[in-house]
UniProtKB/TrEMBL annotation:
Its main location: membrane. It comes from Methanobrevibacter curvatus. The chain crosses the membrane at residues 6-25, 37-61, 81-100, 107-131, 137-159. This is Multidrug efflux protein NorA. It is a multi-pass membrane protein. The keyword Cytoplasm does not apply. It comes from the Archaea. One of its GO terms (cellular component) is plasma membrane. Keywords: Cell membrane, Membrane, Transmembrane, Transmembrane helix, Transport. It is found in: Cell membrane. GO terms for molecular function: antiporter activity; xenobiotic transmembrane transporter activity.
Length: 169
């Protein structure tokens, strides 16, 4: 997750510089490239975590006393590895808004994703549908995915207005 956050921090700076220079056409390119680069990184991370989950869980549950949680920890790592797949969208959208001086948009996206969608889906899957802890994990993944879709749509609609503005050379 740290590399994707680093990309997001870079997006803030590069977007701000292009916005200040009135190179508005570049902002959409920055957004798209941030998502693409993020995907390359998180796909590798997610596949590695998914495949290495039994070995990673062994590192944290190697003693006879903790061996009982090893299988559950492996399942947790595998389910949450899917969480990473949509992170570049949400982080890139939030970063674009920050770079454009629209920090409240960024905050709103984070609040919607974390405090509404992830909590809602975790509660729905774990409690209402009775899937227990697995439902809570899938709720995090689902909430993050839905939040990423909202972030993508919101950012694309907002960036549309910059496509109508002529770029200053």
């Amino acid at each position: 997750m740290t590399p994707v956050i680093a990309i997001g921090i870079s997006i803030v700076a590069v977007t701000g510089a292009n916005f200040g220079a009135k190179k508005f056409k570049n902002i959409n390119l920055i957004f798209n490239q941030g998502i693409k680069l993020g995907f390359v990184i998180v796909i590798g991370m997610a596949v590695a975590i998914f495949l290495l989950a039994p070995y990673i869980s062994y590192l944290f549950a190697y003693s006879p006393e903790s061996a009982g949680i090893r299988d559950v920890l492996t399942d947790f790592l595998r389910v949450t590895s899917l969480f990473y797949l949509v992170l570049p969208i949400g982080i890139s959208a939030s970063s674009i808004f920050q770079g454009l001086g629209k920090g409240l948009h960024s905050l709103a996206l984070s609040l919607i994703r974390v405090f509404f969608l992830e909590v809602f889906f975790s509660f729905l899957f774990a409690i209402v549908l009775g899937f227990g802890q697995y439902g809570a994990w899938w709720g995090l993944v689902t909430g993050n995915a839905v939040g990423a879709c909202i972030s993508l749509i919101w950012a694309k609609l907002y960036l549309r207005k910059f496509n109508k503005v002529k770029t200053v050379l």
